[in-house]
Design a protein that fits this description.
flat, mainly alpha, 0% strand, 3 helices
Length: 103
């Protein structure tokens, strides 16, 4: 029973710490931070795939499959969000073609 309480304590501590850290990130640093977190999500996905590969019971396989599915969705969604955010920083003006415009 102690292991369950310890796991719950660690989860709550990680959630609180993560919320505090992310809420204090300036807007200008959000895109690089997202890029770095996408890297971490890729590592989580590899870990979930390894755990699924080591699963022996049907219950472990179900949990492993859900972990891989959610990890893949999280990593792919992170890249989509980062790409959309980077699009916001691109200029909407089209450069003048050579020979057009003044000298």
């Amino acid at each position: 029973m102690i292991d369950g309480f310890l796991a719950l304590y660690l989860f709550m501590l990680a959630a609180f710490t993560g919320h505090e850290i992310i809420s204090r990130v300036p807007v200008i640093l959000h895109t690089p931070l997202m890029s770095g977190s996408n890297f971490v999500h890729g590592i989580v996905l590899v870990g979930a795939m390894i755990a699924l590969g080591e699963a022996t019971t049907w219950w472990q396989q179900v949990i492993g499959f859900v972990g891989v599915f959610l990890g893949a969705g999280n990593a792919a969604g992170g890249y989509v969000v980062t790409e959309r955010m980077l699009e916001m920083f691109k200029s909407s003006k089209k450069p003048a073609a050579a020979g057009e415009g003044g000298k």
